[in-house]
TrEMBL record:
InterPro entries: HpyO/CreE_NAD-binding, L-asp_N-monooxygenase_NS-form. Residues 6-184 form the FAD-dependent urate hydroxylase HpyO/Asp monooxygenase CreE-like FAD/NAD(P)-binding domain. It comes from the Bacteria. Transmembrane segments: none annotated. The lineage of its organism: Bacteria, Bacillati, Actinomycetota, Actinomycetes, Kitasatosporales. This is FAD/NAD(P)-binding protein. Residues 567-586 are annotated as: Disordered.
């Protein structure tokens, strides 16, 4: 009987792991037989999020040239590099027939430029092609078996083979090793959301809890009626598109040159707000030129080692954030001084020496920056970036709309103007920081939200569309620190904000425009809940605890399970994404390689005789 590996989750993370298994197999596994069982009800490669069965109006959130599933020389790993095309390069090949794609995809691929934003269905074709290539690259005696089922239970002793039970199947898959490469999953709602859902059911209202927007039933959001929307991130952008263009509206260029919107009459009126009250920052719309900041500088492996070695572990606010802030500031000012020296008052070498000596967040650091960078607009103010509407009050709803449109337009202008290229340096520093933070476990929701807000915002064209929808009255901004209540007197939802005191909006519909918070204990995935019930450890934030070195699942005593592994956003070693920018030493690629090598080493040592003896 061949050794057996079960991978639960066939989306991009499972595909990336399979690619690393193929890359490392020759060196670590030789020509031994191996059965790999891939379990997922959705298509391999694309998985649920990137499947073809969704609206073509939904876009990728990164430029086509900035998306890759393949390792390169930047990735710090023990395994070999296996180069492959970015989404943009693959699309060129698909367009000219060099690679084969499903019917209808070749035209879309051929029209995609490197600085375009592909739709998610095309990305799904790319991921499917990557999957097929990974399977083809496996040695002849390694066989992949696909199971279009949902895994519902994982059982088995620590020192023995594992059983993976599939929905609708009478017998389990029996495996030497199991890897969970699950993506974003639903969770049972917390008490506040349960109360809102119950209120909606009682009063005949529509309440949509956090969800992947493409899977939400939007039919209850009626034409012309107000809808309260809580959240202004990427889920809101998808919602905005599906309820406008998706209902027949269209964009046009107005006589004044601005983008306009022609409603179909089927749109609801979206009253949207959030904690910050503003959308995520636009994607940067220019290329990098010149010298890159030498990163990491103040938050690299040595600093991470020192923090992790502290008794009791580091505190994020006290110990980690100051180093992150100093790293972001270093990248910002390095770019300002080297690319725009006319906007500085001292030489870079003098500034750098004093900047390095100053404590993060200290008065000395603020004094140095103020004396060296004359224009406050050229200084990095992370507090204002994080909460741009803090303390801002508008005298009227009309003033709030004008103020928010001005803010969004200013953000678009800045993020598409290379005169503000320090912003892109900060983006590069954020990627560098993220690469270190994968070792720190669950840092709580604030950091990931801040990272996404600055580094993973919508394409510029989406914010232009948001402005057009605002001018057309289809979107109305609520402001910051939004509160939503269930008004038992009127039987409606009621929303207000700190930006416009003493003014509220009522509606029969409320949408939580965000993904569910990951929680193993409260996951809607039966396998994860069962894992928790069996003793798997979780963080205070609800993430599955894993060994940062290779992804082994930890129990509540801190022991690593020898046969169970997990990778992805449900773990405390989650990286910024299963696919990433080329040349960025992506944490997910490093994790995939380390886990693949651990799997192959374990399985190679399991000769038939050893396996028979151990499993008795």
């Amino acid at each position: 009987m061949s050794p057996t590996l079960v991978i639960v989750g066939a989306g991009p993370r499972g595909t990336g792991l399979l690619e690393r298994i193929a890359a490392n197999a020759a060196d670590l596994y030789g020509d031994r037989p191996l059965d790999i069982h891939l379990v997922d009800p959705h298509p391999p490669g694309a998985g649920r999020i990137w499947r073809h069965d969704q609206s073509p109006l939904l876009w990728m959130n990164s430029l086509a040239e900035d998306i890759t599933m393949f390792t390169d020389a930047s990735v710090e790993m023990a395994g070999p590099v296996r180069a492959g095309p970015t989404l943009a390069a693959w699309a060129r090949q698909a367009g000219d027939g060099t690679v084969t794609v499903p019917s209808g995809a070749a035209e879309a691929a051929g029209a995609l430029g490197p600085r375009d934003f592909a739709d998610r269905r095309l990305q799904g074709h790319y991921l499917g092609w990557v999957y097929d290539r990974a399977v083809a690259a496996l040695p002849p005696r390694i066989t992949v078996h696909e199971h279009r089922h949902r895994a519902v239970r994982l059982a088995g002793p620590r020192d023995g083979r594992q059983q993976v039970w599939l929905e609708g199947r009478p017998a389990p898959l029996v495996a030497d090793l199991v890897v969970l490469t699950l993506g974003h999953l639903g969770s049972e709602p917390p008490p506040e959301e349960q109360e809102l859902a119950s209120f909606a059911a009682t009063h005949g209202l529509t309440y949509l809890p956090p969800d992947f927007t493409a899977d939400s039933d939007l039919s209850g959001l009626r034409a012309g009626e107000p809808v309260l929307v809580r959240g202004m991130g990427l889920a809101f952008v998808d919602l905005m598109i599906l309820l406008t263009e998706g209902r027949g509206g269209r964009y046009l260029t107005r006589p004044d040159g601005q983008l306009g919107y022609l409603p179909s009459g089927e749109e609801p009126v979206l009253h949207v707000g959030s904690r910050r009250g503003v959308p995520y920052h636009s994607k940067i719309g220019y290329d990098w030129t010149g010298e890159r900041p030498p990163l990491p500088r103040f938050f690299g492996p040595a600093e991470a080692d020192a923090l992790l070695a502290r008794p009791g572990g580091p505190d994020f606010t006290r110990d980690v954030w100051p180093l992150i802030a100093k790293e972001l500031g270093f990248a910002h000012y390095h770019r300002l001084f080297t690319a725009h020296p006319e906007r500085t008052a001292v030489h870079w070498t003098d500034f750098e020496e004093k900047y390095a000596a100053a404590d993060p967040g200290s008065a000395a650091l603020h004094t140095l920056v103020a004396a060296s960078v004359p224009d406050p607009a050229d200084r990095l103010d992370l507090d204002t970036l994080d909460r741009p509407l803090a303390g801002v009050r508008y005298p009227s709803a009309a003033a709030l709309q004008d103020g928010l449109r001005g803010y969004i337009q200013a953000d678009l202008d800045r993020r598409h103007d290379p005169a503000h290229s320090p912003d892109q340096a900060v983006f590069l520093a954020l990627l560098s920081v993220y690469g270190q933070l994968t070792r720190f476990g669950d840092l709580g929701p604030w950091w990931h939200g801040f990272f996404s807000y600055l580094a993973s915002g919508p394409p510029g064209p989406r914010l232009k569309q948001l402005l057009a929808l605002s001018r057309a009255g289809v979107v109305r901004f609520l402001g910051a620190d939004v509160t939503v209540t269930a008004d038992g007197t009127t039987g409606l939802f009621r929303a207000g904000s700190a930006s416009l005191p003493h003014t509220e909006v009522t509606a029969r519909a409320l949408v939580e425009a965000r993904l569910p918070a990951p929680s193993v204990a409260h996951s809607r995935d039966a396998l994860l809940r069962g894992l928790y019930a069996d003793g798997a450890a979780t963080t205070p934030g609800g993430l599955l605890r894993v060994d940062a070195a290779d992804g082994r699942v930890l129990d509540r005593a801190g022991r690593a399970h020898p046969r169970r592994f997990a990778l992805g956003p449900h773990t405390d070693a989650r990286a910024s994404g299963a696919f990433t920018r080329p040349g960025t030493n992506a944490p997910s690629f490093r994790q995939n390689d380390a886990t693949a090598r651990t799997l192959l080493t374990f399985l190679a040592a399991r000769t038939p005789k050893e396996r028979h003896a151990a499993d008795q």
